[in-house]
């Protein structure tokens, strides 16, 4: 085991610490303790062991007077924390043993923790993985975000249709945070700007307080801990006593209710800008609090604003915090007296922006009127920024245009570096959304291919594979993931492959038990677990996966004695509540599952499973159990993907297109260990230009035509025959994501999968080579890239030669 800066503790001693919290923090004795009490006591006992390295890291950072990284994100999709903290402290076994001695089941307690679901999908989870890597690498950093009272909605199905209910992670105490009432800042909205006396004065109409809650983020081996600071909205005046005394109770609590609205709930859209005023207020709320906080810290350490960029690196996680540019310029000008040019250049040297999507509907553009009414001073400052940009660069690209404030252009102009999240995506960013700005600011756009933390996404979620890897190549791989390459040498060794397959089978059995217990669903662990888990979106093409499934069903029924590979199609994912087509796709998957799973002729060969409420914790059970990873987006649409990395790391080969990071995964694992299909991004553009490409594709594929007919005619919705006619017509009229054009290629690729899967040794070898060759996709490598190419920040963990 690695050398721990954390003093080792015996299970007995740690058990005593848990009991101390049960008694003194929960006020319970063992005989009356509920699962919640044990979970709280365990969490607090683990948290106690994070505080010293946390203080130590803060002290070292202060003394080093070096650079801090500030990661601004509207989303942090954290999931559960007990396992994560126990593993990073090297205390998983100790905790398990301590609880066992107290007659408690560690796994049961871990499963009782609600997910911190403060994010929608890829962008939010990436932020959480990055926080783990920043701490593991010992890079001084703060994550800044919003402490939503309600995270991403709970999904449940009623007759196969998605229903949403409010998520309630804070219904119980959140053990990992420290409230910081003393750290709070006024956040202003609306009103007007008085330009009379030379320097403009903003007279806001509304003000709320942003109050901090800190969660320590401990890294691998407990060597370093950074802070995740989440802001909660509080009223200036909590309670309007006068209204209360007048008996107007609503008015009395209005200030509280109004203020809290700002941090009340996460917007559940992950690709479509809402344009809602509250969303803009949320974005400004947390960004302003964060900028005020980092400036106060810098100045309190005696910093000179001229050197701000030598001590502060601010990373914008997409355009959601893009107001950070104008806000920093506002404070540097209006509160610290810098002239506009120096304020802009100082700010730009601090700021960098990551783009996570090319989808036009996801690029934030605020109606200028709305923007000006909420942020009148910032509107003025953006005009100044635009003027300087046009003058200095000779560019013709406007930030404010056609009555809209374009947040992508604003973030680009105010950043010294802009990056995409995979090699293909970064090229497409240069060639499409920012082609003009790329010409005007050559070299500003770079690539930083995404990554995932191997602590959560292998070490923690896959104990059987972890054990095999430890025995095969030693235990240093969790923070040096490219050591996994050492496994390749064993990929021809039958004994190793048997153990590798045994690990996979153990995870498949665990999933089968979990699904049986939770949903009463019985899985055949010998079947291929074919998994597509991600947000529901047309570009991710869950529909194409389902069409292939129905085509397979048809083929099996026509040839029941064929040597079919038994398959379980597992879907997981939420649709944004307002995304009608995505919700129709969910309904169709569930309707199809109902019919096919009940078909006596095929049910031993084909099953469709769609567990409700996919989230981070469910991914940690599904991914280790997967045989096949579905990464089938229309080429050019998935900026990177990160699920693709998690599956490959856990020994699940990919069936996929040349899209996002699939391209780099295929390069790493070898084309022979990847099931490629479909049009390339360039071919997609070309095909889209052809007339009736969808109808012609269907005419050319009787297999597809039949499936579409079945759906359209109500085979899967006998009680509502026309339920999907609109969906199918839409596909024939404007199949924007080329489901029809890639269908045959996808179907053939799936048959290639069948063939290889039937040869167990060949399949397991392919699976093992995937695990061995994706070490590069560690978020430690990604963060090292950001630190080298964007932040020029360095680790403060002396021993590490990062
Ligand atoms: C304004 C509404 C909104 C909210 C979130 C977003 C995100 C950018 C969507 C997102 O999560 N993008 C995903 O980011 C991942 C991390 O980089 C990538 O791996 C995924 O490919 C990308 O879809 C766009 C628009």
Number of helices: 32
Strand coverage percent: 5-15%
Q: Return the domain count.
A: 2
CATH architecture of the largest domain: 3-Layer(aba) Sandwich
Low-confidence stretches: none
| CATH topology-level fold name of the largest domain | Rossmann fold
Distance between the ends: 21 Å
CATH superfamily label of the largest domain: Glycogen Phosphorylase B
Q: Ligands in the structure?
A: the ligand CCc1ccc([C@H](C)CC(=O)N[C@@H]2O[C@H](CO)[C@@H](O)[C@H](O)[C@H]2O)cc1
Gross morphology is: globular
Report the count of strand segments: 24
CATH class of the largest domain: Alpha Beta
Largest sheet: 9 strands, mixed
Question: Order of strands across the widest beta sheet?
Answer: 7-10-11-4-1-12-13-17-18
Please tell me the overall pLDDT: 96
- The secondary-structure class comes to alpha/beta
Helix content: 40-55%
Radius of gyration: 27 Å
Structural commentary:
The protein folds into two domains: 366 residues, Glycogen Phosphorylase B (Rossmann fold), CATH 3.40.50; 269 residues, Rossmann fold. Helix content is 48%, strand content 15%. It is built from 32 helices and 24 strands. It has a nine-stranded mixed beta sheet, sandwiched between helices. A six-stranded parallel beta sheet has the order 21-20-19-22-23-24, sandwiched between helices. A hairpin with a 6-residue loop joins β8 and β9. The protein is globular. The mean pLDDT is 96. The site of the ligand CCc1ccc([C@H](C)CC(=O)N[C@@H]2O[C@H](CO)[C@@H](O)[C@H](O)[C@H]2O)cc1 has 22 residues, from α6.
